Amino acid sequence: MVSAFRKKYPFIDISAHETTGSDEHQRILLELKAGMNKEWDAISMANDFYNEYGPYQKKFDILGMSQNGVVQIHPNMIDPSSRNAVSVTDMIQIGVTYNKNLIAREKTPETWEDYLKPEFKGKKIMVDIRPTEIAALVPAWGLEKTLDFARKLVAQQPVWVRGGSRAVAALLAGEYPMAIGQNYRSVRRSQLKDRTGTIAYKMLEPVPVRPSESLAITSTSSRPHAALLWLEFQASGEGQKIMDQFEPFGGSVHAPGSIQGQEIKGKKLSLVDWDHYTKLRDYQDKIVAAYGFPKAETK
User: Fold this and answer.
1) pLDDT tens-digit readout, 238-283
2) Which of 90, 76, 65, 79 lies closest to 264 in space, CA to CA?
3) Average pLDDT of 230-244?
4) Could you report the per-residue pLDDT of 43-60, keeping only the tens digit for each?
5) Closest CA to 55 of 214, 229, 216, 231
6) What per-residue confidence (pLDDT) applies to 294?
7) Model confidence at 299: pLDDT above 60
8) Do the domains at 2-89+210-275 and 92-208+283-290 have one common CATH topology?
9) Which residue, 48, 103, 239, 280, shows the most beta carbons closer than 10 Å to its own?
10) Closest by alpha carbon to 164, among 129, 112, 124, 121?
11) CATH architecture for residues 92-208+283-290
């Protein structure tokens, strides 16, 4: 991405650093709040802390620029409330990811509610303790139905895991037959490495779709217009093709011809729009409470 940007804008000196994990995002956010983080012109914002970044963003009206053709960024990629945050990639949550050697495709769930059937009770399903995939059902189902589903899912005695990598590794090892709500990109990447063809997936409707990375220009940026070009480039057709090829499968569903956009074409969606995106952490907290994880017993 950086190389392609340099080729298009050779007069801009750019460097990029990948942020991984919530700890690093929290560190950057604390530095912004303390007025110490003046190194970066543009940052990615963790969805768990999205609502905390507002005071530290450059007050550019990127949505207005988009609507008037000043920047080439799809309007749906821009937060209509703040008007200055851009999501250049989305995340599809897969309904069923399964080990083909342990369960046949026709025996896997056809709907989300099928997970509540008796045959899937007792260590048959892996469920992430960070319930982003379940929270992403709220736009289509509403909060109460989603919480009811979460409580019933607990009664199925699932296997609790943390992180898609752990779940996919367990599927490959044949430890468990299925996982619910895995990230599309993670599963597709695992399939590229899976020479045995063990891992398969099935989309369940409504398909949860949510922004997975939001970008903004910092209020302390000394090169805000160059940063704006960087955001625009990632949202452009060229930038989206790079994401699809090298992420891989990382293009936004709003980008014409993106792999994820083609995957969900014609399907009923649970679309986490910007209004829901700002509430996603609250939804997750309520679902975790509904899970009611068992506590250690004392004698």
Assistant:
1) 999 999 999 899 999 999 999 999 999 999 999 999 999 999 999 9
2) 90
3) 97
4) 999 888 999 999 999 999
5) 216
6) 58
7) no
8) yes
9) 239
10) 129
11) 3-Layer(aba) Sandwich (3.40)
Residue ranges per structural domain of the chain: 2-89+210-275, 92-208+283-290
Strand 86-99, strand 199-202: pairing: antiparallel
HEC letters along the chain: CHHHHHHHCCCCCCCCCCCCHHHHHHHHHHHHHCCCCCCCCEEEECHHHHHHCHHHECCCCHHHHHHCCCCCCCHHHECCCCCCCEEEEEEEEEEEEEECCCCCHHHCCCCHHHHHCHHHCCCCEEEECCCHHHHCCHHHHCHHHHHHHHHHHHCCCCEEECCHHHHHHHHHCCCCCEEEEEEHHHHHHHHHHCCCCCEEEECCCCEEEEEEEEEEEECCCCCHHHHHHHHHHHHCHHHHHHHHHHCCCCCCCCCCCCHHHHHCCCCCEEECCHHHHCCHHHHHHHHHHHHCCCCCCCC
- For the segment 98-121, the average pLDDT, to the nearest whole number, is 97
pTM comes to 0.91
